[in-house]
Amino acid sequence: MSAVDGSTVHSRNICDVEDVPMDVIIRPLVLEVNNEKVQSLMDTLEDPSNASSVPPIDVLWIIGSEGGNYFYSFGGCHRYTAHKRLGRKSIPAKLVKSTIDDLRVYLGSSTPDLK
């Protein structure tokens, strides 16, 4: 698989796609999107015959020190925004089991203490 088919280096070996509730996904970086691209994705998602052509996003799944579940997403900004603007309650995602050290790669010293 390659990025062309929606896979990334993080999720290329993950086959399962989960419907992850939008309200549990943490997006710590400011989204900058191209509104035309978002609208195109929204049009595709609203067409039942084409909706499955939109690849899932990658979500880092981190279990905190006291067992809490945390779901971080850094990519898929346009897909995430399209789902959000459509009022979708969930988004197809590949859950990438990760660690706090993985998260630290993205957030550096801003990494929260996850419980």
From TrEMBL:
SMART domains: ParB. The lineage of its organism: Eukaryota, Metazoa, Ecdysozoa, Arthropoda, Hexapoda. GO terms for biological process: cellular response to oxidative stress. Pfam families: ParB_N. CDD domains: Srx. Its EC number is 1.8.98.2. This is Sulfiredoxin. ATP binds at residues 76-79. It is an enzyme of class 1 (oxidoreductase). Gene3D superfamilies: Conserved hypothetical protein from pyrococcus furiosus pfu- 392566-001, ParB domain. InterPro entries: ParB/Sulfiredoxin_sf, ParB_N, Sulfiredoxin. It catalyses: S-hydroxy-S-oxy-L-cysteinyl-[peroxiredoxin] + [protein]-dithiol + ATP = S-hydroxy-L-cysteinyl-[peroxiredoxin] + [protein]-disulfide + ADP + phosphate. SUPFAM superfamilies: ParB/Sulfiredoxin. Keywords: Antioxidant, ATP-binding, Disulfide bond, Methylation, Nucleotide-binding, Oxidoreductase.
